[in-house]
Structure formats: C-alpha cells, structure tokens
Amino acid sequence: MTKSxxxxxxxxxxxxxxxxYIGEVLTKISGQRAGPADVITGVSPEAGETVFWGRGKCHTxxxxxxxxxxxxxxxxxGTGPLNLPIGARAERRAKERQEQGESGMSATxxxxxxxxxxxxxxxxxxxxxxxxxxxxxxxxxxxxIRAVITYLQSLGGEVDAAAIKLPPAITAARAxxxxxWKPLVPVDVEVGKEIFFDxxxxxxxxxxxxxxxxxxxxxxxxxxxxxxRTFDFIIxxxxxxxxxxxxxxxxxxxxxxxxxxxxxxVKKEDASTVYLADKEGTIEKVPKTxxxxxxxxxxxxxxxxxxxxxxxxxFYNLMAFLLTLK
Length: 326
Known about the structure:
The structure is a single chain. By secondary structure, this protein is an alpha+beta fold. It is 31% helix and 12% strand. The chain has helices at residues 9-22, 45-53, 86-99, 107-116, 142-154, 168-171, 189-197, 225-228, 231-239, 306-309, 312-322, and strands at 63-64, 67-68, 210-211, 214-215, 252-256, 261-269, 273-277, 283-287, 291-296. The protein has a 5-stranded antiparallel β-sheet, with no helix packed on it. A two-stranded antiparallel sheet has the order 1-2. The protein has a two-stranded antiparallel ribbon with strand order 3-4. Strand 1 and strand 2 (67-68) form a beta hairpin. The longest helix has 14 residues, at 9-22. It starts with 8 loop residues before the first helix and ends with a helix.
C-alpha cells in the first residue's frame, strides 16, 4: 500500500474506537506482568524504591539528584524546587495547598494527591501531563502506590505508612485486563524499528528522539513510551504534535541583533549564553549580548505532516515498534 496516510484518518479514528470498545490497549506494554526484580512484598521505602525505578517508571519524568530524568517533571531530590528533597518539600507544599483552601492537608496528603490527582496542583514551570499510575498502561496496585509514597517520605521526611489514605479511585481499582493490540493490516516490528532509526526514512524519528542509548535529544526520550502512555496518546502525538508539547521541549525563537532568526529548544542557559538545539540536534551557543529578542513558540519542533508523508504500511509498522517500547 502506498496511499497517502491522509486517506486513512477516518480509518484511524475507527481503530481508536475499537480499542475503546475492547478496553485499554496492550497487554505486554501495560506493566501488568512484573519481572522478578519488580515484585515487591509489603509497604516500605525499599519496596517503593523498587517500584519508582522499575515498574512504576517514575524515573522517566522525575529525577532524584542526578539519577533519572527531570526534564518533564520536577526533580524530587535536594536540587529540585525549593532546594528541598520531596519528603521535606511536601511539608511546604501542604502549607501552600492549605492556603489554597485544602484545610488540614498534611505532607503525606500532598504526596497522595500528587499521585492520585496530579492535576490538582501543578508545580510552577511544569505542565499538567502526569499520567495516572493506577490506570493503564502503568497499572500500579494500591500497595505499590503506598510503597512509593513511603519511599518519597523517606527523602528528607518522616516515613509514616499509617498516614497514607488513598482515595477510592485507587483502593477500589482492580487490575485492568488489557487486550493485546490486533492491527488490521500485517505489521513488522523490525521494519518499524528501521523506519524509526533510518535517517533517510519518511519518519526518521531517531534524529530527535532517543531509545535506549541510540538517537537524538531534541525531543523526549521514548525508551519507555508504551509503558507510560496509552495507545490513543501515542496516536495523537504523531498526528497532532502541537496538541500537547512536553515540558522542557517547547520551541523558542531567538532574534539576534544582526537579524538572524534561530528556532530550537533551549537545552541550557547560563549568565552569558543560551544553548539552543535545532531540529537536527545541533547546539548553537548564542551569546546573550547578541540577542535582540527571545520568545517561546506555541508549535512543536516535531513535524506535523506525518499523516501526509507516511504510507499506511509505514505508519502501522512504526506503531508496532513504538508499542514495544516499555
């Protein structure tokens, strides 16, 4: 099939509706089947640490100190917001929430809210984009979430498992039986992998995205994509990359005093220089003394024409590979 992907938009929507009908997507990517290293017993900081860095995949967005990835979400160590580790920071955040009308909120209550209802309070400078860990594809059990909270408490705070009161949305949840993806055309994961990494392919995703140790860093790392994001989220990110731009990957326009227009992602900034990554991943060091104007952009650096340039076969093979990334 070599038909332009624009001709299957309605077809794609129909497929998404099928997935809604059969429930959430992807058995193998849902995190339901924990490996031996991910099995926890009881509620403790040690068990929570295992979940945080393992099945919960919290580290794909958060760091603790220099470990993990703190681009999309706050660093939970002492170098994060307020320069306090999350166990101590939670005390300050709870007071802020009390001032906002959440009377009686404790540090533990804040940690629970941050996981159970992350949209209730979004840290300044970040976006409301955290997935619910008790829902697919992460699908953590209530015991695992309690363990993670004790781990967060231990980072500068007091561990008190008895104080953890999870909402009914978590305690009443049952492990979701997730259907395996059944594409309506033949797919080949290896072909999809080649499309992803080949710089000459119509997708050439690896120019900007990293999987494991391979690929670029212009866009978000995708190593655990299907383990943290739903099928329809992945579809939407490809078809409409401007709909939700991940924190830390917003495009910025710099106009220099000599009339140059530079667009890219600010990777680093110090007192004298802005380090701007273009769509090829090349870093340009722009002295602040040469900048006339700097402004955030509302469009993603990711191309928005994949529905026109990918064939049906290319799209489905690429999706087949993406859905192995857990």
